[in-house]
């Protein structure tokens, strides 16, 4: 891989230890993937933030990098293991909180000041079409590539952080035009409605096409929230980091000849497969983190009601502040629900705390079953809210 004079200096340690280590990671990646050069990135999303995920070794690594590492570009963080301000209301133990705050302190020292979220595009990190970025967090990667037409590979936490500290990423994979072409046409033979149905489509696609790039025909309309749900599940169940939807996503591409059909029965089977027989004692909405329009909808659905189960809303602090200003927060909290900013149910230390969780997210279903051993209910936001109010799944 050809380096500029400046990059050679970074690699030789002239810009400090953190930059040198970061360049070593990026050069190793470039060599593995046969990149010709490093390219500048405009923004970075760093995963590996929860103490539940990265543990003591991760904390030590971040402390060491933060001695002289400072980010060079707009950098945002993936969810932490707790709400950074109101962690007590989530039932988080003090020992965990201390470690989590030490992780955040190390990131702050490196210059990352935004609050953690997996939908950075709703919180000030919104790449434009064609922009090169280095993002980790599979749902956000897929959203950046597909819904926004920006360009990122599926970075891991350390490689994304290396890009933040150097402002560079190796030029390979989805940064190149030739690797962004669709490989299979998917003809959707049913109308989809709601985040849960788009999540089910992602599950079906993930299982049928693996990590190939699809060109999807037959989607009449999709909101940005439905696209984020599709991004989260297609990446979870298959590994795809980019899809194109005819008439909806921004990249102009041609439909491949090889094609498959997806019918209503497959969407319903996927939804059935995500539903265990149980009545929820925990409701979670916000995987990926909520948009302000979703918060508005939840406020409307909860108006004048009282909930019986534990109920968390996952979102960025920035969207929460908007919700405060618009009066949604009070209506939601009056019903008994909790705002869980900065965090997510998968990386929070809640294993064994609940028996049955309800959500509209196919991704949350996959990970909360696997990691926390919860039984799951997946349906529309309305169904989840009805379950929180009645304590029963209908
Ligand atoms: Fe976000 Fe956690 Fe879901 S990181 S996409 S809320 S699993």
- H-E order: HHEEHEHEHHEEHEHEEHEHEHHEEHEH
Helix content: 40-55%
Total helices: the number is 14
Which small molecules are bound? FE3-S4 cluster
- The oligomerization state is single chain
User: Biggest sheet, strands in spatial order?
Assistant: 12-11-10-13-14
Rounded mean pLDDT score: 97
Structural class: alpha/beta
The backbone outline, from C-alpha atoms, is globular
Strand content: 5-15%
Report on the structure:
With 394 residues, the protein is an alpha/beta fold. The chain is built from 14 helices and 14 strands. The chain has helices spanning 5-12, 17-32, 51-65, 94-109, 138-146, 157-166, 195-209, 224-237, 264-273, 292-302, 317-326, 328-334, 362-372, 381-390, and strands at 38-40, 43-46, 74-77, 133-135, 168-170, 184-188, 214-217, 244-245, 259-262, 282-285, 310-315, 338-341, 356-359, 375-378. The strands form four sheets. Strands 12-11-10-13-14 form a five-stranded parallel β-sheet, with helices on both faces. Strands 8-7-6-9 form a four-stranded parallel β-sheet. Helix 5 packs across helix 8 and helix 10 packs across helix 12 (328-334). The termini are far apart. It binds FE3-S4 cluster. The site of FE3-S4 cluster has 14 residues, from helix 13.
